[in-house]
Amino acid sequence: MFPIRDHNPSGGTPYVTYILMAANIGIFLSYFGIMEDARQINAFWMDWALIPARLDHGQGTYTLVSSMFLHGGWMHLAGNMLFLFIFGDNVEDEMGHLGYLLFYVATGVIAGLAQYVSAPVSNVPTVGASGAIAGVMGAYLLFYPKAKVDILIIFIVFFRIFPIPAWIILAVWFAMQFAGGVASDPDTGGIAYWAHAGGFLAGLALATPVWLKRGGPGYWRRTKGHPPHPEVLYTVTTSRIPKVSRRKRGPWT
């Protein structure tokens, strides 16, 4: 189960969201060629990934930012860019281009610090934009809790798209990160659950001043938790490809 789009159009062009996506993709492509070489990629992670033990020794502070633009594989990158594409444009709408950029970097740094606090002596490299994107999701929840988000549910051979309110998918996602953080051992690697949870909470906190400027609870009463502009309606259209009927072929054909 994962979101594939929302029904919340942006009021302008989300330049910063597009630039962040391009930066993440471009940087990934720049080192993709060494990922099959264990020695080279491990040396690369040592230099640029967030390694809590390095921070604990007062080293590699810059990796709180650099690690946000690194990914461990195509699916890792694709998943993060999908979430950024869905939720980033609307948050950029609310905060403005510069404010959104500063917000994104700040939530990513806080997410990295949350991961560090969870395992300060770990030597496991942490990479990915998901902490910062979790902050974007937290802000989205605050601004548009009832915006419709389409989720794709896949169960063996069955799949279907359902529109549900944003607060449900985001609350479930946060609960999964929190539960994963409690149940997992950050010293053994895997998903950086505490970075996700920390980034999400940071996004909620840092977006609150903007929400209050819009009127706080009054903003929710005016919009009823929905986007402040008409939602996008997606419909299934009939295919333009002509249908060719199958007829039983006789011995004369």
UniProtKB/TrEMBL annotation:
Give the transmembrane region(s): 12-34, 68-87, 99-118, 124-144, 151-176, 191-212
| InterPro entries registered for this protein in UniProt | Peptidase_S54_rhomboid_dom
In what residue span(s) does the Peptidase S54 rhomboid domain sit? 61-210
Offer an example of a GO molecular function term for this protein. serine-type endopeptidase activity
Q: Which Pfam families match?
A: Rhomboid (PF01694)
User: Does Transmembrane show up as a keyword for this record?
Assistant: yes
Output this protein's name: Rhomboid family intramembrane serine protease
Protein species of origin: Roseobacter insulae
Q: What is the lineage of its organism?
A: Bacteria, Pseudomonadati, Pseudomonadota, Alphaproteobacteria, Rhodobacterales
